[in-house]
Every structure is written in C-alpha cells, then in structure tokens.
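User: Sequence in, structure out. Go.
Assistant: Echoing your sequence, followed by the structure tokens.
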Amino acid sequence: MMLFDAIALTGLLLDLFALLYIVNGFSHAILLRYTSSKYGLGLQILGLCCAWVCDSGALVVGSFMGHAKLAPVVSPGKTLVGALAGVISSVMTVLVMFALPQLSDMPVIGEWTHELLPAPDVVPLLHQIVLGVVLGVLCIVGDLVESYVKRVAGVKDSGAFFPGHGGCLDRMDSFLFVAPCLYFYSQFALP
C-alpha cells in the first residue's frame, strides 16, 4: 500500500517549490533595496531592466533567426540564438546602466542617475560584462524554470494581470533569479 499518492506528492512539491521560488526572489529584492550599499535602488532597476530586455531580445531575435530549440520539452518557443541574443542584450543593458552616471549632466538623463549606480571607473568594464553575462543567463534560467512549473501545473499563463503577457509571475520570473544574485553582488563586490 502506498503511503502517498504520487500525484498529490507531486502537487505538494510543486507548491513548496513555487513558494520558495517566489519568496526567495522577492525577499532578496527587498533586501537589495534596503540593506545594500547606497546603490540598492539602482541595482533593482538594473535587474528589472536586464530581465525585461533579455526576455525581449531573446523573443525578437529568436523568433526571426532561431531554429535550434533551447529546451523543446519545457518551452518549445525558446531557441539557442534567442538565448544568446538575450544574454547579449543583458550585457548591453548593464553597460548602458553603468554609463548613465557619466551622462548625468545631459538634460535628458538628469541628475537622478548620478547616485543610481557606481561610475564606470569604480566598476571595471570586465566586471560589468561578466555581471551582464551572469544576469542574462539567470534571466533565461528563471524563464525556463517558470515555464517548467507552468507546464507541470498544466497552465498557459500564471494569471491575467497583463493581457497578452501572462500573469505577474510571467513578467517577473527572470527577476526572481536575478534579485538574489544582485543582492550578493552588492554585498561582496561593490564598494
């Protein structure tokens, strides 16, 4: 006699994973904002921008140029070329965001960017590129994990909050993986 029903156990494990996945990501986003160096808000904005630009870059380039599938069972629409484009988009986003403090005297950019992130002379270029690659890879992993959870749960979208974009979790899935990385980056790598 089985002590646990396999389907019920799978459902329980999925619920626990989803809870930990969401709580871990958002709690690190809060920690990033309030316990990090003076750049917590800027790093949150950087993480959100990287997540959204990576997703968009992967979608656009992958839909036009991608043929080889990244994870056909989990998410049939994601391609290797799209993933590479997403990582490159993430690197470009990091480089632009770290360049903003130098451009703060321009009227379009404004003074608000001066204290957003450290100046590029504080964080070396190689450091920025590596951060962009890591964030890009985490964005793709976050997207794949959320796609897997939805596939196992048998749903297409995680909600209807953003029509045409899935639910709130569909917009934040990548950021939930990026936020812990940025938190530890702020604690150990930033001055």
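User: And one key feature?
Assistant: The mean pLDDT is 84.
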